[in-house]
Write a structure and sequence with these properties.
There is one protein chain. The protein is built from four helices and no strands. It has about 140 residues and is mainly alpha-helical.
């Protein structure tokens, strides 16, 4: 029995792929911004401790990336690549915004775990968005 040699699929980038990534990243950022505003309002009205805010913030980031991928990816191909890129760009964008708001651009406050977790969440979210969404 002969087997065919494996060929690498083309990783060509077209306009649809770029728009999927931009759309997903911006959607994730907007969803995250709305979530942070709601979380800030809840914290203002209640006495929520810091030990609760950090896990909720992490869940909010992951949920934002997931929803950004689900609603941002229209072309149902290359989900892991698109999702990973969305997660990575979202993480970098949120870090950049955080640095601007803190008025420090030194890079010592960059959390590399956030970048890696955003990338991982994006890859998984992209796979989910491409494979489990209705056509």
């Amino acid at each position: 029995m002969k087997t065919k040699p494996l060929k690498a699929k083309s990783l060509s980038i077209n306009k649809t792929t770029i728009f999927d990534i931009i759309r997903g990243t911006l959607l994730a950022a907007v969803i995250s911004l709305l979530g942070v505003l709601i979380l800030a309002l809840i914290c203002k009205l209640t006495t929520v401790g810091n030990e609760v805010i950090l896990p909720i913030n992490q869940v909010l980031k992951i949920l934002s990336i997931l929803l950004g991928c689900i609603f941002g990816i229209k072309e149902k191909v290359k989900g892991a690549i698109k999702g990973g890129t969305i997660g990575l760009l979202y993480s970098l964008l949120s870090i950049f915004i955080f640095l601007i708001l803190n008025k420090t651009l030194d890079g010592s406050s960059i959390n590399y775990i956030d970048i890696v977790s955003g990338l991982a969440a994006g890859v998984l979210s992209g796979i989910i968005a491409v494979n489990f969404r209705k056509k």
